[in-house]
Amino acid sequence: MAELYVKPGNTERGWNDPPQFSYGLQTQAGGPKRSPLTKRVAAPQDGSPRVPTSETSPGLPPVGPPPPSSKVSRPPPFVGSCPPSRTVPMDSPVVESETLLEDVLRPLERALEDCRGHIKKQVCDDISRRLALLQEQWAGGKLSTPVKKRMALLVQELSSHQWDAADDIHRSLMVDHVTEVSQWMVGVKRLIAVKRSLFSEEEANEEKSIATAEQNQTVPGVQHDL
């Protein structure tokens, strides 16, 4: 505590005037200098309160959680004219095109008509009866979706004259779904074989006709009607 020194009596002051104190003795005595209490400290730039260095212990980290940040993170604003894409939920149903009976039955019936006159009537009637069983079971809902899809592929291969591919599909149906297709698949198999045989004969006849025409054009002495 600072020492107070009362000056000796002053003749110019009254007896009831308050005494005058002198603080010069502290400076003369060499006491520690104190910083004036009116000194201002510069405010920090980041807005957080700053503790004077004299009140903190050197080398020790501050105790307690950090002060909460006044800035709230926000998502970046949307840039562009297109709205953000929406994800489709995984459990949404996927609509598949249903295989129609007409798309399968009509090509088979046309193939059967092409075979009439080239094979026995008994064979054609048996194939026709098997196709009628196929139509009945399909319309009655007795055939599963995999069978319908494979039959659609079989008909496509048959119409494209891909005999090996059509025969492979027939065998896969007999192995995987024999209980569903056993009553009418025999007729489809026979129809594939007959169409393949007729197509081979037609190709052979066509090639023979082309070869004969070329031979007649190259043989000398053969007259052609104009």
Automatic annotation (TrEMBL):
Residues of the SRA1/Sec31 domain: 62-209
Primary subcellular site in the record, as a coarse category: cytoplasm
Disordered: region residues: 1-91, 205-226
Keyword Membrane in annotation: no
Gene3D superfamilies associated with the record: Functional domain of the splicing factor Prp18
Record keywords, A-Z: Activator, Apoptosis, Cytoplasm, Nucleus, Phosphoprotein, Receptor, Ribonucleoprotein, Transcription, Transcription regulation
Record localization: Cytoplasm; Nucleus
InterPro entries assigned to the protein according to its UniProt record, in alphabetical order: SRA1/Sec31, Steroid_recept_RNA_1
GO CC terms: cytoplasm; nucleus; ribonucleoprotein complex
Function description: Functional RNA which acts as a transcriptional coactivator that selectively enhances steroid receptor-mediated transactivation ligand-independently through a mechanism involving the modulating N-terminal domain (AF-1) of steroid receptors. Also mediates transcriptional coactivation of steroid receptors ligand-dependently through the steroid-binding domain (AF-2). Enhances cellular proliferation and differentiation and promotes apoptosis in vivo. May play a role in tumorigenesis.
UniProt subunit comment: SRA1 RNA exists in a ribonucleoprotein complex containing NCOA1. The RNA also forms a complex with PUS1 and RARG in the nucleus. Interacts with AR.
Protein name, per record: Steroid receptor RNA activator 1
Species assigned in the record: Cervus elaphus hippelaphus
